[in-house]
Amino acid sequence: MIKIGLEDLDDIALGATFLGTGGGGDPYIASLMTRRAIAENGPVTMLSLDEIDDDVLVFACGNMGAPTVAIEKIMGADQPPAAVLALEAHLGHQADLLMAFEAGGSNSMMPIYNAAMLGKPMVDADGMGRAFPEMQMVTFSVYGASSSPFALASEHGDTTILDISDDKRAEYLGRGIVIRMGARSAKASFPMDGKTAKRVAIPGTTSLCQSIGANLRQSRAENRDPFAALIDMLSGTHYGHAKILFNGKVTDLIRETRDGWAIGKVVITDQQDASLEVEFQNEFLVARQDGKLRTIVPDLICILDSEMAQPITTERLRYGQRVTVMAVSAPSIMRTEAALAIFGPVGFGLTEPFVPVENLP
């Protein structure tokens, strides 16, 4: 058990932006909200999966929508707790613990924020170990937990409950409601007991976000190579393998908000005129260099500012940025046959088969 205080938030947000692989939403506003919640209500207690009882009720919470919208459409202070409270009212049972459904971006902050606002502890785990764009793309769903019933809340005080047996259909119907809520909603979902959480969740992801953020911060302060330091740190985690794919300048960018996602591609060119093309749907999905596969989901593609090693989200990409592209292997729980069927290449309509990044040039 640990306490998350004000001094921890910047590192968690920075590490979450890295694990977000371009998605999850920029955590800046969410971290400001969380900072105020902790300042007013005190530190948040976070338990490891091993520390929770089998019979506790756990909710996975966060946001659903397009990260491009979140830059201009600020979330209401009562909006994330409203989703949790709506789901509790529907079930007739209060959640004992809150958990992230994805470790990336602003969604890493939402369990901390809700825990501070509602006076609940949280679990150091999530369902993605990164960020993915669709509700069913979580280890929870892969290994038998259901997203339903789940609650959505708008900034206007609207809440809705959906109870849908198939998680992919839940994504489709839920996304339609989110679009009509302005393409940005708070969500509370995947109600499960502690025994199930231990079986289906990826452990230690919030504390890993904090470790990644601290590693990047300390490397900058000590004038060490932040990329080499991060690669070395990740080698000792359940992610294992990380490497630099490419260095260059953003020379082309196509991005649109469509069907509730930020969709497009970015082209990065080096001094020898070699190019790396990265496609994204909220998150970076596949990287190809001169037409050859370099990395593909579920392995992580992370684009960082070359000078400061600041991770860049898809909505913050700009023409002319000088960037370094890193690839990180996904944890083994995300590479099983069942997992690849949900959030591997086939889940995004990509034609290439999954090849582990450590086996690619």
Helix content: 25-40%
Number of helices: 11
Biggest β-sheet: count, sense, barrel? 7 strands, antiparallel
What structural class should be given to the helix and strand makeup? Answer: alpha+beta
**Mean pLDDT level:** 95
Q: If you compute it from the alpha carbons, what radius of gyration comes out, rounded to the nearest whole angstrom?
A: 19 Å
- The CATH class label of the largest domain is Alpha Beta
Shape annotation? globular
Strand content bin? 25-35%
Count of the separate structural domains = 2
Output the CATH topology of the largest domain: CV3147-like fold
Give the name of the CATH architecture of the largest domain.
3-Layer(aba) Sandwich
Give a summary of the structure in a few sentences.
By secondary structure, the chain is an alpha+beta fold.
Overview of the structural elements:
With 361 residues, the protein is of the alpha+beta class. The chain folds into 2 domains: 2-203, CV3147-like domain (CV3147-like fold, 3-Layer(aba) Sandwich), CATH 3.40.1610; 225-359, CV3147-like (Beta Barrel), CATH 2.40.390.10. 31% of the residues lie in helices and 28% in strands. It is built from 11 helices and 17 strands. A hairpin with a 1-residue loop joins strand 13 and strand 14 (283-289). Helix 1 packs antiparallel against helix 2 and helix 1 (6-19) crosses helix 9 (205-221). It starts with a strand and ends in an 18-residue tail after the last helix. 52% of the residues are buried. The mean pLDDT is 95.
